[in-house]
Amino acid sequence: MTEACSVVSRVPNGSGRRLWPGLVMAMGGAVGLYLTSLHSYLLFHSLVEIFSILVAFGVFVVVWNSRRFHENGYLLFIGTGFLFVGGIDLLHTLAYKGMGVFRNGGGNLPTQLWIAARYYHSLAFLIAPFFLRRKIKAGWVMGGFSFVTLWILLSIFRWNLFPDCYLEPGGLTAFKRVSEYVISLVLGASAGILLRHRQAFDPAVLRLFVISLLLMVGAELCFTLYLSVYDFFNLLGHLLKLAAFYLIYKAVIETGFLKPYDLLFRDLKESQEMLWRANEELETRVRERTADLVKVNQELLTEIGMRKKIEEELFASEARFRTLYDEAPVGYHEIDHEARIVRVNRTELELLGYSHEEMVGRPVWEFVVDQAESKQAVLEKLSGLLPPSRAFERAYRRKDGTILPVLIEDRLLRDAEGNILGIRSTIQDITLRKEAEQRLKESQQELKRLAAQLLHVQENERKELARELHDGLGQILAGIRFTVEEMIRKGNKEGPSAVGPQWRMVLSLVQEGIEETRRIQMALRPSILDDLGIVATLNWFCREFEKVYSGIRIEKQVDLREEEVPDSLKTVVYRIVQEALNNISKHSAAKNVKIHLSKEKSRLELRIEDDGQGFDLSRIRSEKEGMPGFGLTSMKERTELSGGAFTITSAMGKGTQIRASWSCLGDFGPTGSGRGDSP
């Protein structure tokens, strides 16, 4: 029994003798590969890597398809790991210097992928022994390896988080060398752990695994010595890797493919022997009990009386349970594997207005408003394709035709083997909650309408105040300037001494007052926006901004005509650009700003980008519980109140991008505030 339950199945005697011809062939292949490297090292590298990739994928296929015969998770873990080792090695082969598959044709990318694959290789052998005497779920193993692989590939190709491993010139980096030593230590430790658990392996299998790990240690040490991706130590390391993968192939095929079937039949035979022994023991016990039949009969009569009493108590308990079930504050129903209602409580019957006979036996989706969606969801849950929902909303149709909104919670009913038998559901009437939500939604819409009206009134006040400054104070100051200039002109005719310096000072102050009045007027609302439109206003505003902030260069791109911008959005677009440039001048330390206003199909889009220092948007949001800063909040509110969508993207050292877009279909608000349908 101990031999039959060995964690890794034994290989047949004589497998060691069959191993030597394969090793001789492998050595011959290695010599041939060396001669190939003299002709083309890139061809040599591709052949070696393709062989190891095929071995890795083959190991996975064998282990994965024989997983139901494994008594433990060791081979499943190793085989799944080799799937991802082979995948990363494939990327390493394609990225190798000279292949021309990736735009970065240097030696750093393939070296990074090599290190990632070797970490996978070594850690798989280090962790796998923990599953020698326990089973693991294949889905969890596949999901875990997939998540880690995705993170590694993103850190290399997307995020640039993976440290450099090879620099030109300079060769191997310190990280690469240290990683090779760490991987060598992990592989050596893995070999030690295998030797510690030698009783779980056939000696030949154990020998194959240990020699493979030691060959990989030698390969990793070779990869700490090369200076070029084409030199001798790189060649030697790949040959050692080739030999290691050949031994892994032999070990896994011998263990994971051939032997599990023999182990399965051996377990059945032992189970049959145990059954025979149990049958003999049972017959012996029956013979022993036959002598006590008279006494047992008397005891049975007593037991029958006790059972009747227990059944009466059980019946009373079941009646109490039925009362609690029927009078529960929420509805209950159960469906079978065909989605037909088999049990329903009185509360649910009263909620829907049906009788017990009218509901039992019918598919549950017949009582739902959206029958097609409900049917699909229920059938997917019963088939195991969709997990049960903890809480979700659904609209039921009462017998009288009215709609009942409910909150549903599902639980799967399973048998002892885990097969799905049906679903038990609770439904709770949420009519009052839905009415409260509707009132809240209406209140929020009213608040948005009032806020939009407030912005509209504010813009009108700005416009009126700017007009008053221009027509009132501006005209007064212009008249004063004209009068002073006339007095200075007449005084100059009488002689230079007739005009005192105080008049020239007065003229200067009046001129400053006129310019300040014009600046305030334009800041409140530039008249050019009403006279010439948004395109001309943006051109003017960017010129004025560059005059004040000469260190910031603005690049504008307007891909639309003036009439394509709705009148209700012109003020919104201007205010967003004004606030964005104000923030850039104060906080970003940017040198270049791009403003892009365009319209594609029925959508207007404004994009503002800068190359400034950026900021951590998530940190600022968590600190301020919203958009960072009043300016960004103002832009966001203006955009959303005008029926648009607003997004901001920023990162430390990578600048900031602001996007605002609107659907140009439909009305933008009766008050001219820019409110319209949400995109």
Keywords:
alpha+beta; flat; 679 residues; Rhopdopsin 7-helix transmembrane proteins; 12 strands; five-stranded antiparallel β-sheet; five-stranded mixed β-sheet; disordered C terminus
Binned strand content: 5-15%
Shape, per Cα inertia axes: flat
Low-confidence stretches: 1-16, 261-270, 622-628, 666-679
Strand order of the largest sheet: 4-3-7-6-5
Q: How many strand units?
A: 12
Q: Which structural category fits the helices and strands?
A: alpha+beta
**Helix run count:** 19
Q: Assign the CATH architecture of the largest domain.
A: Up-down Bundle
Percent range of helical residues: 55-70%
CATH topology name of the largest domain, in short, is: Rhopdopsin 7-helix transmembrane proteins
User: What Rg, in angstroms, do the CA atoms define?
Assistant: 41 Å
How far apart are the first and last residues' alpha carbons, in Å?
A: 70 Å
What's the structural domain tally?
4
How is this fold's topology laid out?
Blueprint (H helix, E strand, L loop, with lengths): L14 H25 L1 H25 L8 H22 L12 H20 L10 H21 L7 E2 L3 E2 L1 H23 L6 H20 L9 H59 L2 H34 L4 E5 L5 E4 L1 H7 L3 H4 L11 H12 L9 E6 L5 E12 L5 E10 L1 H64 L6 H24 L2 H5 L2 H15 L4 E7 L7 H22 L3 E9 L2 E8 L6 H8 L4 H13 L2 E7 L5 E8 L16
Parallel strand pairs: 8-9
Antiparallel strand pairs: 1-2, 3-4, 3-7, 5-6, 6-7, 9-10, 10-12, 11-12
Helix pairs in contact: 1-2, 1-8, 2-3, 2-8, 3-4, 3-5, 4-6, 6-7, 7-8, 13-14, 16-17, 17-19
Note down, in words, how this protein is organized:
With 679 residues, this protein is α+β, with helices and mostly antiparallel strands. The protein has 4 domains: 15-261, Rhopdopsin 7-helix transmembrane proteins, CATH 1.20.1070; 327-429, PAS domain (Beta-Lactamase); 436-525; 532-679, Histidine kinase-like ATPase, C-terminal domain (Heat Shock Protein 90, 2-Layer Sandwich). The chain is built from 19 helices and 12 strands. The chain has a 5-stranded antiparallel β-sheet with strand order 4-3-7-6-5. Strands 8-9-10-12-11 form a 5-stranded mixed β-sheet, covered by helices on one side. It starts with 14 loop residues before the first helix and ends in a 16-residue tail after the last strand. 29% of the residues are buried.
